[in-house]
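Researcher: Re-running this chain for the archive, since the previous output was lost when a drive failed. Same request as before.
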Amino acid sequence: MTNGTSSQLGSFNAGFAFAAAVTVLFNTVLACVKDAYRPLLSVMNRVGYHNWITQGIVDVILFFGLGLIFSNTSFATRMTASRLMSTLVICVIVASGGLFIWYLLF
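Model: Regenerated structure tokens:
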């Protein structure tokens, strides 16, 4: 937090928290798509020697890229700290449930 009385986060904290929420959802979608679409899985296996390595690299690049972008805009900083944290928690729950259902069914 920027000071003890504010419920707003600093631009970097807010930007990277929102980037984490987006990256978590992207990771889930990518995991499902690569398992359903074999050509993508094959490309990812060749690029990083294993699809999970490639997926991790893409996730890290996306997280830092979006974090820097969101840090330089006012979008994430307009959200209160509690709302931003709630967004992150909801995204993690949705992503976890999505992966659970995906691997349960397929």
